[in-house]
Amino acid sequence: MDTTIENSNLKSEEYFINMGPQHPATHGVLRLLLTIDGEIIKKVEPDLGYIHRSIEKMSERDSYQQIVHLTDRMDYLSSHINNEAVCLTVENALQLEVPERVKVIRTIISELTRIASHCLWWGVMGMDVGALTSYFYGFRDREMINDIFEETCGARLTMNYNLPGGLMYDIHPNFVKRTKDFIAHFKTKLPEYDRLLTGNVIFQKRMKGVGILTKEDAISFGASGPVARGSGYSCDVRKHHPYSAYKNVSFTESLKTAGDSLARYEVRIQEMWESMSIIEQLIDNIPEGDYKVATKAVIKLPKGEFYQKVETARGELGVYIISTGTKNPYRIKFRSPGLSNLSLLNHIAVGGKIGDLVASMATLDLVIPDIDR
Amino acid sequence: MNTMNFTLSTSTTIYEWLLGILPEGWENTANIGTMIVIALIYLAIFAVAGLYLVLLERKVAAWFQLRLGPNRVGFWGLLQTMADALKLVSKELTGTIKADKFLYNLAPYFVIVTSLMALSVFPFTQEFQAFDINIGLFFLIAISSIGVIGILLGGWASNNKFALIGAMRSGVQTISYELSIGLSLVTMVLITGSLQLSEIIEVQKNGWLIVQGHIPAVIAFMIYMIAGTAETNRAPFDMVEAESELGAGFHTEYSGMKFAYFFLAEFINMFIIAAIATTVFFGGWLSPFGITESIPWLGVIWFIGKTFILVFLMMWFRWTFPRLRVDQLLTLEWKYLLPLNLLNIVLMAVIVWLNLTIQF
């Protein structure tokens, strides 16, 4: 007698489900076309373009100072780092040496941005696996960073603090003190994150061995940032191609070899510690000097192609500018970390359950406007 | 209608009052009238109780999450859920065109009616119990498992794949955890020797059952609380709704008051699970060491107080733990809780047989 389902008259068939563009787990307007067999994922097909604002095309119309402001809207959680990427490209093209003070301030704010971004990611990560409380803990600490930003540059999210040639204004007199206060505060709060979520047995069960990405796959999918480092691929731009003040500070690149969701999670937690250490090394000795060098009102890049990459909170952001010598770029292309990290979602989610898909997607830390641009 | 068990003074008082105002020979009408009046009282009390459990949940969540919670409508936000309920009542009932209309409309009533029915057998004090049936515990387990039919119907009839996945998960989950609930209560019944809730409390006058049964009772209580949380589909077992996975799960397509029925039922079910635990493990309306034995009506306060501590415990679970995955949920039940439960029953049987229970 045959009792297995395969050989009986009971039919089971795969079905299709539409996850998004309005779905709590896709954090924005990502649409996933899922092919599911019961609870098991057979295929994940991301459908992009719901928040495409043609930033690259608009940039061809704008001057270089204006392009900086558009980049805020790509990966809005690392807005300062995006600004910095464009500014560095333009400065390199002009062979403009910015003052040491600017480099240090840019680095400190970049690292604060990274902590803020990871705080939000941590909160949302908890929410995606069903622990709603973590969301508010993450936001509590992120608020403090936003307050520091607000005081210094007037904005909390889309900062526009960078300009080709330096910064918009000098830092606020309170900046150093408040940043130190934050570091002291966050050093007591980050262990709380571990106590609430990391050590939880359910959380470990949900994350360990789920969504495995090997080092070879990470490289071939073009993964970068914590996603690739969770698979043991050393790819930190700050380490390998240091820009701004990163060559003056010592920090370790957090690497995990497991390649599962838990590894990617731990890499980000570790990065927050590293970011704090970088800020501590720099905050006490911000060099005196100008906060910008004067540039011409209309910046014209020399004819040629220019590329600069930086490490955002999500991975490697590249800015590629083709200039014909006019005040606008002929073509500008952003290599965003989100797009290549999303491309491996199908690879790591197939064979898992719906819950696994959501958990693995959370560890990719996708920002949809960064993917669509 | 003389088979009705009117031994309790609350119902007797209403019955006599109705007899007094009705003409001679209308005893049956008075009987039915009594039942209707009691039903209405229960309905009113638990509609309000459900609303305030929602408020409590929001406040507890706020305390855990560094927030204030609702504090604008009424003092300390006390009228917030009333306002929400008014809003839900006045909302248009939208539905899907392709839904199976009859089943779609039936489902919320299934859920809310079963949870209200379960309330009728609880002894809130010696005096205040609607029906003291001799299979009270069995009735509770039976009724609480009917509710899942409503969830299955709702998810199936909505004609929505997310709702369907949610409903199927609910079926799987409830069928599995029903076993643990039943078996952990059976463990306690070994001591009481009765399924009648008033008798279960009578037995506990010599010490609450969690003390009488000591080790196996504590194990049974822990299993019961885990399974009870799963039974009410609350986090960390909220596979059925799983907002980050399924949007809203089985009630995705429901709106207005029909949604509110599902929502209220969840909270009343939580109250029921806590109330069963209070009755079976913590002496129901009995005060600790009989300190308020001379004032019987205080039993209500003790009962509600104990219940709310357990409700708070369940809220604590919800706002602390991440959600399990659906296969881990079944692993937990079938591989860990069920074998442990069966062993626990044997242990309890040995303890009762050797008369090792602790009695004061």
What would your notes on this structure say?
The complex is a heterodimer of chains A (373) and B (360). Chain A is an alpha+beta fold. Chain A has a single domain (51-339, 349-372), classed as Cytochrome-c3 Hydrogenase, chain B (Orthogonal Bundle), CATH 1.10.645. Helices cover 47% and strands 13% of the residues of chain A. Chain A has helices spanning 55-59, 64-71, 79-94, 100-128, 133-153, 175-198, 201-207, 215-220, 226-229, 237-240, 261-283, 337-343, 345-349, 354-364, 368-372; strands spanning 15-19, 31-37, 40-47, 162-163, 166-167, 304-311, 316-323, 329-335. In chain A, the strands form 3 sheets. Chain A has a 3-stranded antiparallel sheet. In chain A, a hairpin with a 2-residue loop joins strand 4 (162-163) and strand 5. With 360 residues, chain B is an all-alpha fold. Chain B folds into 2 domains: 1-90, no CATH class; 93-353, no CATH class. Helices cover 68% and strands 0% of the residues of chain B. Chain B has 13 helices and no strands. Chain B has helices at 9-21, 27-64, 80-90, 101-119, 136-157, 161-192, 197-203, 209-212, 214-231, 243-246, 256-281, 298-320, 326-353. In chain B, helix 4 (101-119) runs parallel beside helix 11 (256-281), helix 9 (214-231) runs antiparallel to helix 11 and helix 9 (214-231) runs antiparallel to helix 13 (326-353). The relative contact order of chain B is 0.13.
A few lines on this structure:
With 373 residues, chain A is an alpha+beta fold. Chain A is 47% helix and 13% strand.
Shape of chain B: globular
At the first level of CATH, the class of chain A is: Mainly Alpha
CATH H level of chain A: which superfamily?
Cytochrome-c3 Hydrogenase, chain B
User: Overall pLDDT of chain A, averaged?
Assistant: 87
